[in-house]
Specification:
Elements: H1 2-20, H2 40-47, H3 52-70, H4 75-78, H5 82-90, H6 94-104, H7 110-131, H8 151-181, H9 186-206, E1 211-222, H10 231-244, E2 253-256, H11 269-282, E3 286-293, E4 300-308, E5 311-318, H12 332-335, E6 358-359, E7 365-370, H13 377-385, E8 390-395, H14 405-420, E9 424-428, E10 434-436, E11 453-463, H15 467-471, H16 474-495
Parallel strand pairs: 1-2, 2-3, 7-8, 8-9
Antiparallel strand pairs: 1-11, 3-4, 4-5, 6-7, 9-10
Helix pairs in contact: 1-2, 1-3, 2-3, 3-5, 3-6, 6-7, 7-8, 7-9, 7-16, 8-9, 8-14, 13-14
């Protein structure tokens, strides 16, 4: 009895640790190659679970460990609340854990192993889709996002988004599990790896690449870390000085980071005049981000505002998807106590009503995103479908300055660029600021978290439509269809009446002869 308890405790601890391992594939560790084997320890544990209940428990514990490891930098905002949040999100991995045990456990034959190579990745994708809902934190830490600097993976993202990359990565992990633990299933395992390689090769060789159609000189202004009670005013002064230093570089657009302006421009016409003067000096519009209480409606908004030589042009985008706890507290009447133990928002920000595409001089159209909206593939896809030729994500991760968050956030822009076939400018207050071309490749050097500078980038523009922009998240539909078919077949087998066993036939009668 004592040995059984120790075994259960050991397995529980191993599940948490194994679930946390995938964090190594993301920035800042950046061991992207580990993504193709990093699930193997967890899956080996799950396939050996003695019961389905045990597999469900170890799936839950591993999922919670994954959330804490990938999002540990949220501790300043969430504090102790990160643990119950991880426990809640960890429940999303229970179906995947049951699939691992059911399809890869024991000694699966070729048919069951082949089914596992399809359905286990689909089950993992199901958990990613569920937690990608903005109310649960959004699609941060998707396994496919770990491949943000791998060109073949970025090509796959142009076909099926980050979701297709996730399916491929999990499929390779499944194949490794079969190769390690089930010698009899090596044929489907090798076939799976070969299929992933062939798919990647076909996409790499045959899919048309983005057709470059001109360029845009974009200047990114990163003021660096500024604190204190008068931080907003001093930050504006630094941004103004850095922007004025761009004279002679002839940018077509100047971008400031999120919350670069700390007062509504209608309430502070002096700030509006200073911005207009900068635009006139450089001969280029400024895209600034205002984080302030508005004068024309109640509440605090985070807004991308385009400013020209005459002042604000009227193009304005109000952030739609807010960061849970960072910008609003879900169910504040119940969870408002989170503000007393961390840096949760003291007052909820207000949401914008719709995406906005802005027109720049020269005919280029701009699609703004604010902060972690760059994590949502559907938002950038919508902007491109509405005609955006360049995407700009204005961000501020100064709260998490010395953590993995800045590098993780900047990496997401590479995926959005590859998915949409449009360049993405990721401009921040305190780094990492970076620019990515329409293939997802980095353009020029990034501005690190230690930089207070302005940099000009030659951003290539592109035309054409990627399969992801055209068809959307079709890998999710395929995964759900496969899981639905599996459940339907299982249900039919469960209710199908069993044939009674045939009664043993009587031995033939012998006739006595005399």
């Amino acid at each position: 009895m004592l040995l059984a308890k120790r075994t259960r405790r050991w397995r529980a601890a191993a599940a948490v640790a194994a679930g946390a391992l995938p964090c190594l594939a993301f920035p800042a560790p950046g061991l992207w190659w580990s993504a193709y084997v990093v699930l193997v320890p967890w899956m080996l544990l799950l396939r050996s679970a003695p019961t389905g209940r045990r597999a469900a428990l170890e799936g839950w514990l591993g999922g919670a460990g994954f959330i804490v490891a990938v999002h540990h930098w949220l501790l300043p905002s969430l504090h102790v609340f990160l643990v119950p949040l991880a426990a809640l999100l960890g429940l999303l991995w229970i179906p995947w854990a049951l699939l691992v045990r059911e399809l890869l456990g024991g000694v699966p034959g070729p048919r069951r192993a082949a089914a596992g190579l399809v359905l286990v990745p689909a089950g993992w994708l199901l958990s990613e889709l569920a937690r990608s809902w903005q109310g649960l934190g959004g699609p941060w830490g998707l396994l496919g996002a770990s491949q943000w600097q791998v060109p073949p993976a970025l090509r796959l993202a142009s076909v099926g988004g980050v979701w297709l990359v996730t399916l491929l990565v999990v499929a390779v992990n499944c194949a490794v599990v079969l190769l390690v633990a089930v010698p009899g299933a090596r044929v489907p395992a090798v076939a799976s790896v070969a299929g992933c390689a062939v798919l990647t090769g076909v996409v790499w060789l045959w899919l048309p690449r983005a057709e470059v159609s001109g360029g845009l000189r974009v200047a990114v202004v990163q003021p660096g870390l500024v604190g204190g009670a008068d931080g907003a005013e001093r930050r504006f002064d630094i941004e103004e000085r850095l922007t004025r230093g761009l004279a002679g570089t002839h940018p077509g657009l100047v971008v400031w980071g999120e919350s670069g302006v700390g007062a509504d421009l209608a309430a502070r016409p002096d700030l509006a005049r200073r911005l207009a003067a900068l635009s006139a000096e450089l001969g280029a519009p400024l895209l600034v981000n205002v984080d302030a209480r508005r004068t024309d409606r109640p509440g605090i908004y985070k807004s991308s505002v385009l400013v020209g030589p005459e002042g604000p042009t009227g193009d304005r985008y109000d952030k739609m998807r807010l960061v849970p706890f960072g910008e609003y507290v879900p169910a504040r009447s119940v969870l408002g106590w989170a503000t007393s133990v961390g840096r949760a928002a003291g007052e909820d920000r207000m949401r914008g009503a719709a995406p906005v595409v802005m027109d720049l001089p020269g005919g280029v159209r701009l699609g703004p995103l604010v902060c972690f909206e760059s994590a949502f593939p559907d938002m950038s896809r919508h902007l491109v479908r509405e005609g955006a030729g360049v995407l700009v994500a204005q961000s501020a991760t100064s709260t998490f300055q010395d953590s993995w968050a800045p590098a993780q956030h900047a990496s997401l822009a590479a995926l959005r660029a590859a998915e949409t076939g449009r360049p993405v400018v990721h401009a921040t207050l305190t780094g990492v600021s970076a620019v990515y071309g329409p293939s997802g490749a980095r353009v020029g050097p990034a501005l690190s978290t230690s930089a207070s500078a302005a940099a000009v980038y030659e951003v290539p523009l592109a035309r054409g439509t990627t399969p992801f922009v055209r068809f959307g998240n079709w890998p999710a539909g395929a995964a759900l269809a496969a899981l639905g078919l599996y459940c339907a077949v299982g249900g039919v087998r469960a209710v199908r009446p069993r044939r009674p066993a045939p009664e043993p036939s009587a031995p033939p009668a012998r006739t006595a002869r005399g």
